[in-house]
Structures are given as C-alpha cells and as structure tokens.
Write a structure and sequence with these properties.
Layout lengths: L3 H29 L3 H27 L10 H16 L2 H32 L3 H29 L5
C-alpha cells in the first residue's frame, strides 16, 4: 500500500472478511448465551451483520472494485478468544464474559468503520461515506445495547 486509496481498499477487504466471519460465529455465541435477552440481541445483530455485508458490497461497487475479503487476523483472534470463553465460562460469568467479548468485536468494528468512513470522505466518495456511516451507526448502537444489557441485568457481583 502506497496511497490512501490502496489503504482504503485493503481495509475494506479486511472488514468484509470480518463481517463474513461473524455471520458464522454469532449463531454459536447466541446458542451459548444463557440470557434470552442476550440471545435476542445477538440474533438481531446477526441480521444487521448480513445487512452490513450487503452495504459493503455496494461500497465496493461504488469504488469500482469487486467485493472480496482478505484474511483479518484481528477478527480471527477475537473469535478464537470468544470460543475459549464459551468453553471455559459458565453461570453468571458466561453472559458477562460473552458481552465483553462481543464488545471487543464491536470496538474493533467501530474503529475500522470510523477510519473507512473518513477515508471515503477524503477520497471524495460520498456514496461510500454515507453507507459506511450507516454501518458505523449500527455498530455503535449494538455496542450501546450490549453495555445497557451488561449494566442493567448481566453484571452481578453476587452471582
């Protein structure tokens, strides 16, 4: 990568891989969750993730590139960490740890989409900027929902 446009395209492929990986991981996390509210939130975010992939397809088209992923070590590491939690945690710790793991993914995505959105703006791709803003807003809302769930019903030091 030598130009901002190349960095944008590379990072777009990275997040495309990540979102596709999450469509495989989220059903497993939902199944492991104990809280019905957490399961519902994860299932909802799976639907959003599929919508985000469709939006990313459009972003790729808007820059004249084929939609394709490039291996994302970060998301693979976060998924592996979550799989470890699902094996090791139980009881009240399970849902709390799953929320923490999901928020780590959300924070990664928020960082990526925030960067991509601003790069699209600088590169003059208003269409991509608007779609990436839409995805960024979804990720921020998912993170806020997880925080609310953790604070109001899952995090319990006595459990």
């Amino acid at each position: 990568m030598k130009t901002l446009a190349e960095a944008f395209h590379h990072t777009l492929k990275d997040i495309y891989f990540a979102e596709n990986a999450l469509t495989k991981a989220l059903p497993k996390v939902s199944k492991a969750a104990g809280s019905s509210d957490l399961k519902a939130a994860l299932d909802h975010h799976l639907d959003e993730t599929k919508e985000q992939i469709k939006l990313l397809d459009k972003v790729f088209r808007s820059i004249g590139e084929k939609a394709e992923g490039e291996k994302c070590d970060a998301i693979e590491g976060l998924v592996k960490e979550t799989e470890g939690i699902m094996k090791e945690a139980s009881g009240a710790a399970l849902d709390a740890a799953l929320i923490a793991a999901c928020q780590a993914v959300e924070h990664y995505e928020i960082a990526r989409y925030g960067t991509l959105r601003e790069w699209a703006k600088v590169l003059g791709n208003t269409e991509a900027h608007d779609m990436l803003t839409q995805i960024l807003d979804m990720e921020k809302a998912a993170n806020a929902k997880l925080t609310g769930m953790a604070v109001s019903e899952v995090n319990d030091a006595k459990a």
